[in-house]
Every structure is written in structure tokens, then in C-alpha cells.
Specification:
The structure holds two protein chains of two kinds.
Chain A lengths: L1 E8 L4 H14 L3 E7 L8 E9 L14 E4 L21 E5 L4 H7 L6 E4 L2 H4 L8 H13 L4 H12 L4 H17 L31 H4 L20 E5 L9 H5 L5 E3 L5 E3 L9 H5 L5 E5 L3 H6 L5
Helix pairs in contact in A: 1-4, 1-5, 4-6, 5-6
Chain B lengths: L1 E6 H11 L4 E4 L7 H11 L6 E4 L3 H13 L5 E5 H6 L1 H10 L4 E6 L13 H4 L7 E4 L3 H16 L7 E6 L7 E6 L2 H7 L26 H32 L6 E4 L6 E4 L4 H14 L4 E6 L1 E3 L3 H8 L4 E6 L9 H10 L8 E6 L9 H17 L6 E2 L3 H21 L4
Parallel strand pairs in B: 2-3, 4-5, 5-7, 6-7, 10-11, 10-13, 13-14, 14-15
Antiparallel strand pairs in B: 1-8, 6-12, 9-11
Helix pairs in contact in B: 1-2, 1-7, 3-5, 7-9, 8-9, 10-13
The chains are: A alpha/beta, B alpha/beta.
Chain lengths: 311, 415
Amino acid sequence: MFRIRLHGRGGQGIKTASRILGTAFFWEGYEVQDAPRYGAERRGAPIFAYVRASKEVINERGIINRPDLGIVADESLLLLPVADVLGGVTEHSVLLIVTDEAPGVWKKRLNLKGRVFSLSSKVIVEEHAGFPLVGAACVGAAARLVGVISRKALEKAIREQLRPLGESIIGRNLAKARTAYDQMEASAGCVTEREEPSADSYETPHWIDLPFEEAGLSAPYIHAAATSLKVETGAWRSLRPVIDRRRCHRCGLCDIYCPDGVISLDARGYPHIDYQHCKGCLICLIQCPTHAIKAIPEPGLRAKRHQGRGR
Amino acid sequence: MIRKLLTGNAAAAWGARLAKVDYVPAFPITPQTEIIETIAHWIDIGQMDCRMVTMESEHSMITAAGAAAATGVRVFTATSSQGFLYGMEMIYTVAGWRTPFVLVNVSRALSAPITLEPDHNDVLAARDSGFLQIHCATCQEVLDSVLLAYRLGENERVRLPVIVNLDGFYLSFTREPVKIPDEKNVKEFLPPYDPGETHFRAGDPISQGVVVLGGSQYSYFRYETHYASLNALGVFEEISKEYEEVSGRSYQPVEAYRVEDAEIVFFMIGSFATKAKDAVDRLRKVGCKVGLLRPLLLRPFPVKPIIRALAGKKGVAVIDQNLSLGKGGVLHAELSSALYGATDSTPVLVSFIGGLGGRDITREEFYEMVAVTRKASETGEIPPPRLLYTAEELMRMKGLQSIARVARQKGGGKS
């Protein structure tokens, strides 16, 4: 069974990417199970999705603990322990990272034993066009790396999954997927189905008897107020809204529409964005009547580190 | 028949579409699911001919569903977790009206604390309501169960509403290959609803939900409803044969997977049961005689088929993805009462609580549950209920608690 885990941020098309990959396997005669996993459904939040594909009926279910292929559409997730991108990644696992750094750099930085491939992060910048292409690029590369998906099945899957979006968007996604597919030609088939350990020897789970603890400790409270301020949701952004004061008419619509309340107006009525907490949903950009807000890609991982924001 | 990848949500919507439902009352906001969104889209593009009305709450939605079903039309509705509980008063009420319709519930764990992923405490809160309950393990089962549920609930010996339950995320958002039956085959299996004597229309009014005082008449009506629920077991067996003829898929009130020669049997409901199936296959490869017994029908509870299937077994690992606070696992209690005194030698029952709030149950944990149950059957010493929870998990919890306490020391008590 192929077990593939995709990591990205809400809005990058990770769910769609998992469905394209699942559909492509399906067209190649595989039994398939694909699913996204997210918490609160918000643009920019870390999400993951997974795809299982097998020639036999799939009874496994839920999260993939030991992926054969891990896809990382946003390199900043590698800095977030909570995203657990490397969970269960072993020397058998292949990693595909959207990054401008060389695979070797990542291998060393994360002490990875398996193979690492990279895809240029230029695809994220092109998302500015209003639809995610990074997912298509990842899927194209992944389809070639598993080695059992033909270009024809890949294209059919993209067409099927993106049909409601129209020919123009399908065309751009196809182009991105094809380029990535071709880019991985030399490594076709390097992702393989892991041998399953036999059931007669297994690591006994470390079950414990949960101790009783008094309500002062065991009730689900955090003993402080305004704790959400401590969560730097600004790290979720892949695109940053920037206000051009020369074009701003101080109408305040951005402040009204901001779903997270991170835009405030100063004494003169000019809006300011709290970048520690802005998730980059870009609703302000869509609402601004004078087009005074534009989106720029967030700086890459190294720049973020220099700003001291990585943890 | 076509076979394609569908989520559990889409499979439920396909069930409603193929059942040619007339009316869909729906609360349209969270925690509503893509089931209603999908049906709304089909109505919008002319692929489904039915009336959808959005309601201001699940309480009203379930009331509307029962009221519409009383006029003799076929009704479908759906909800999830907190929304399901918000409608709980009417869950009990419409069952008493004896109006058949299908309600799909997407199971998600209940607050507090707030979470998103599934367990079965939501749907089990309706265990004693009079609604029949079908619990699904795959997306295919979701579609098929909706169709079976109409035949079951509409049967003149039953006349009760039916909950079709699927697990949030593990089925609702998960795509699997699903065979969508042809319309003509479904039509053959599921003709339009004939309400008979329970029919109600404006020109021929009847009064429903009448008042009865003193307890005697109340006892009569409640026990009749109980009989109707019990009847559903036999009816399910009949209609599933008919469904097999048109679909090629056979369902039993209780699925018995490799149980026949098994010594140790898993007993559980819902989608995690496929994980148990996977563990059964792997254990069988190394000569371990295990099986899985999974009730599809939870109400009525298929007592006799369960007794038959477990006769002569050494031990049963009962896995409850729910917790009756102050008692324990609900299935464990149900199974214990079904088996008590039923046969000369009852298998040992070991209670496991696992998968609360969607916590994963790993393959190794399934193996270990077999080992623990086997040991209990050999020694006769039954261990106390076991929460599937590891030392590593408690360590992470302690880490979180230390953060919460640091917050208290810094800023607590001042405001």
C-alpha cells in the first residue's frame, strides 16, 4: 500500500491536491482512500491530507503514521512542531519540499536519512493570480515519484477535480503539474510501498492507568485571560496584505470585514494591520473599494528566522 | 451502476437522491455538513426534485421533518454532534409520533472541552429515544444504509424514524470507492412511501402528539413503540435480502468477520471497526484466531444474532468509542446485559475505552487488546476497564498543564 501525507496551509489547495492524487491512483486501477484533516477551517492554518492506494481493499483508516512519501507545500511548516511534518518519517520515506534551498541543505538541517526532493517556491508566488498552483505542482511531482501514475491518468484526474473552475484555470494547473511530472523523470518510482512488520512481534503500547487529579488541575482551564494573543497566528500567512496609504480613502471597510479583528484605525482613520495575528485571509484585499491593499508573498524560511519569529 | 470516489457526506447525499426524497428541512449553519450543501446544489441544478427549507435550529428542523413525514411524504435531514443534541427534545417527540424519516448524523465528540473529531456520545444520547440506529463503517455502507433505512422505518410493522450514523472525518471527509446503484434498481427496492393509516392532510385532519395522563395509556403507547423497534430486527433481515438482489451487497444486523472459528473477538461499532478488521487479518497471518463482531443496528439491539455469534468464544474485547460518565463504556453494558444468563458459558468481556474525541487506535493497540483479553480468558481474572491512553500522552498533558499553571501564576486571580 502506498501511504502519502501532504502538509500545507489552508488555501493552498492541499485537499484538492490529495483528491487529484487519489483520483489518479483510482484511474490506474488502485483502491483508494483520501482525506483532508483540519481543525477550524481557516485560511493559513496548518492542514494535512493523506492518500492511501493499494491493489487490495483498504481497511486502514485515519492518520498515516509512517508515510512512504511526505509532501510539504510550505517550508515554514517544518519550523512548527505542532504541524508534526516529520512524524514517522524514516529512511524509507521520501520527502518533497516546496523550497528554494537545495535538498541537501534540508537533509542536513533536519537530519533526514531518506531521499529529499525540492520544487521551486515560485509556484507559491504565482498563487497571487487567485488560485493555488502549488498543489498541482506537488501532485505532478508526486505522481512521477510513485512511478505508477501515467501522465494521462494525472491529467484526467486534474480535469475531473478542477472541472468547476473552468478551462483557463485547469490549463494553468495542468501546465504546472506536467512540468513537475517531467522534472522528476530521473527519480520515477523511487517512492515504494513499505514492507509491513509481522503481527507476532510488535512494540507493546505504554498504556498507563490515568491518575485521578482534582478539578483545580483536571478541569480544562487556562488560568489567564486573553491567551489567544499569545498565539502568533501571523505565522500562518503565506501572503501578506499591505496597505498603500496613498490610495486609502479611510473608509474603514477593511476593519469592519476583518474576521479576526486585527485591523485597527488610528486617530486619523488610517487602518493598521497587526501582523503578529493577521492570518492572511485577504478578505480586506477583496473588500477594499480603492484597491489600496495588495498581497505580497511572505519571505522565505531564512528571512523569518532572522526576524526571530521561528520557534 | 457506477463506481467512484465519494466522501461519506457525498454518499449520504446520494442515498437521499436515490431515495427520491420529497422534503429536506435543514439547519444550514455549523455544525451542518456538506450533505445538505450537496443536496442544495443538486436541487439548484435540477438533478433532484424536492423541496428544501432552511430552519433556524436543529430543534425546528427535526420538528419539521416529523411533521412533514406525518403527511406521508418522504423526508430526509442531517446534522452533527452539538446540533443533534440541540434537537434532542424533538428526537424523542417525533419518534413518539411514529413518523418515519431518515436523519443522518455525522458523529463528533461533544463539548466540553470543545473538539471536532468523532466519538459516539452524541448519537448514543438518542439511544433510548425510539429512533432506530444504523452505524456505518464505510462510505459504501452510508449510501446503502440510507436506502435500507427508508424501507426499514416505513415498514408497517415498524413506522419509526431512523438515524444513519457516520463518523466525522473518518467517513464524512474521507473518500473511498463507492458503487452508486442505478435508479431503476433502487426504484424496484424502494417504491414511494405508503403511509396507510398514519396519513395526515389538511382536508382530512387528525390530532397528533396527544396528552395522556395517569401513566396507564402512556405505558401502552411507549411499549407499543418499543415493540415496533424490536420488530425492526426481523424486518432488516428481510429487506437486506431484497437489497442484495438489486445491489449485490449483503448486510446483516451484525457483521461477523472471521468470527466462526475465532477464540477472541473484537466488539465495536463505527468506522474504526475497519481498523480492527485490518488487525484481524494481520493477526490471522500469524495464526492468531481472532474475529470482529460489529453491530450495524444498535437500535434495535440485535441480541439473538450476537448471542449466536459469540457462543463458545473465549473472550471479547469490547471497544467503546464513547464513555457513559460514572459508568463506563455503553457497548460493554449493552453486551453484558445481552449475554448475562443467555448461555451456559459466557465469554470473558474486557472493556476498552478508545478513540474518544477521534484519538487514533493504533494497530499495536489492537494486538495488545487481543493479548489482554486472551490472558483474562485463561486466568479468569478480568482486568478493570482500560482507557487507551499512553504514558507519552500523559507526559504531553503534563506539559500543557505546566503552561496553564504558569499562566495562573503570572496573571491569574488579579482580574
